Amino acid sequence: MRWLAVLLLLASAAGLASPLFEDDEVLEITLTGPLSTVIKDTEDRNEYSFKLTVAGSAIDVDVRVRGLSRVRVCKFPPLRFDFSSRDTADTVFSGQNKLKLVTHCKGAADYEQNVLEEYATYRIFNVLSNVSFRVRLARIRYLDTADPGGTDLVRHAFFIESKEAMAERNAGTLINSRRVTKNYLDPTQTALAYIFQYLIGNTDWSLVRAFDEDTCCHNGLLLGIEGRHFYVPYDFDLAGLVNARYAKPDPSLRIKRVTKRRYRGYCMPREALRKALKAVLGHRDDILRVIEDLPHLSEKDIESGARYLEGFFEAAANEDKLLGQFESRCL
Fold first, then answer.
1. Contacts of 10 (CB under 8 A, 6+ apart)
2. Exposed, middle or buried: residue 239 (CB in 10 Å: 0-12, 13-18, 19+)?
3. Could you report the per-residue pLDDT of 188-224, keeping only the tens digit for each?
4. Mean of the pLDDT values across residues 306-317?
5. Cβ-count burial of 72 within 10 angstroms (0-12 exposed, 13-18 middle, 19+ buried)?
6. Looking at domain 171-329, which CATH architecture does it have?
7. What was the pLDDT predicted at 215?
8. pLDDT at 6 > cutoff 70
9. Domain ranges in the chain?
10. Is the dihedral of CA 125, 136, 176, 174 positive or negative?
11. pLDDT at residue 68 is higher than 90
12. Using one digit for the tens of pLDDT, what is the confidence trace for 247-275?
C-alpha cells in the first residue's frame, strides 16, 4: 500500500486534511445559541457556547463578535468561531481552529447580496493566485436561545480560511512587520494584487499599517515564501464590486463613490505590471464566471457585477494606456 501512503502525504501537503475549503457547495448550517447576547457584546467580546449543526452532525463551538469598522455600522456584526477545544472529527470542520465568518450586516435584502458579492471578490483572487485566502459560502439558520420568542433568521454568510492555514498551505511564514521593504516583495504576486484591487474597485487597503494596527498592512498581510514577501489582501466590503450601502471612499482620494476605480499600488517596472495585466486578461472568462455562477445572487445583481468587471476589461483592451494611468497614480 505504498501508493496510498504517498497519496496521503500529498493530500496532507496540499492541505486536503481540512475539508472545509475543498468544496464550493453551499453549506446548510443551523447555529443555535445566545445570538442576541453575542451581537450586543461588542466591547468585551466574550465567547459564548453554541451548537452548530451541519450534514447531520452537531458540533459545539464558541462564538464571539469580531471586526472593527463593521462593528460600528452593522446591526449584525461579523463573528468568530472557535473550534479549538471542540471535537470536529469526521465533519466538514475537521482540522479547523478559529474561523472568521462574514455576515449580512443589516436586515435589508441588499446586505445579503453584499455578502455574496464580497465572497466573489475572494474567489476572483483565488483565480489569480494560490497565495490567497480560500472561502466557503454557507446558508445559516440562526436560532437565538436568548430570545426564544423571536423569529428564526436565515441568511448567507461565508467562512474565511485562517491566516495560519493559508500560510501552511503555501509553505510560507507569516511576516509581522511594521513596514514593507519593497525590495523583498514578490513582483508577480504584488503586481497581481495591485491590478486585482483596481479590478474590483477597492481603495480600502494599503501597504502601510493603519493608525489602529500594529503591523503592516491595512487589510492585507505579508507571507514569506522562499525569501520573498507575498502580499495577501483581504476584507473587500468597501470595494466597488460590492458597493455596500454604507461604503464611502476615503476623502483624501477625492472620489465620490466607491465604484470609481483608483489605482493605489506602489511604482514598479512596467513590464512586471504588463505581465500581471496579461495574466488577469487571460482569466477574463474565469473571473466573469465567478459572478455568473454565484448561487442565490439576483439576476439584476449578476448583470450589475458582470457589467462592472467588464468596464475594467474594456479599459484594459488598450494596455499601454491603462499602464500609463497606473504609473501616473502609483505611490
1. none
2. buried
3. 999 999 999 999 999 999 998 766 677 789 999 999 9
4. 98
5. exposed
6. Orthogonal Bundle (1.10)
7. 79
8. no
9. 7-164, 171-329
10. negative
11. no
12. 999 999 999 999 999 999 999 999 999 99
CA dist 254 to 79, 219, 262, 266, 283, Å? 32, 20, 10, 19, 31
Q: Which of 4-8, 17-21, 303-307 has the highest mean pLDDT?
A: 303-307
Asked whether the predicted pLDDT for residue 7 surpasses 80, the reply is no
Q: Measure the CA–CA gap between 165 and 171, rounded to whole angstroms.
A: 10
**What does pLDDT average to over the chain?**
92
Q: Give the type of residue at 3.
A: W
User: What crossing angle do the helices spanning 109-128 and 284-292 adopt, rounded to 10°?
Assistant: 150
Sign of the torsion formed by the C-alpha atoms of 105, 236, 109 and 254 = positive
Measured CA to CA, the distance from residue 162 to residue 99 in angstroms comes to 6
Record the cell numbers describing residue 97, joined without a space: 481552529
Tell me the three-class secondary structure of the chain, residue by residue: CHHHHHHHHHHHHCCCCCHHHCCCCCEEEEEEECHHHHHHCCCCCCCEEEEEEECCEEEEEEEEECCCHHHHHCCECCEEEECCCCCCCCCCCCCCCEEEEECCECCCHHHHHHHHHHHHHHHHHHHHCCCCCCEEEEEEEEEECCCCCCCCEEEEEEEECCHHHHHHHCCCEEECCCCCCHHHECHHHHHHHHHHHHHCCCCCCECCCCCCCCCCCECEEEEEECCEEEEEECCCCCCCCCCCCCCCCCHHHCCCCCCCCCCCCCCCCHHHHHHHHHHHHHCHHHHHHHHHCCCCCCHHHHHHHHHHHHHHHHHHCCHHHHHHHHHHHCC
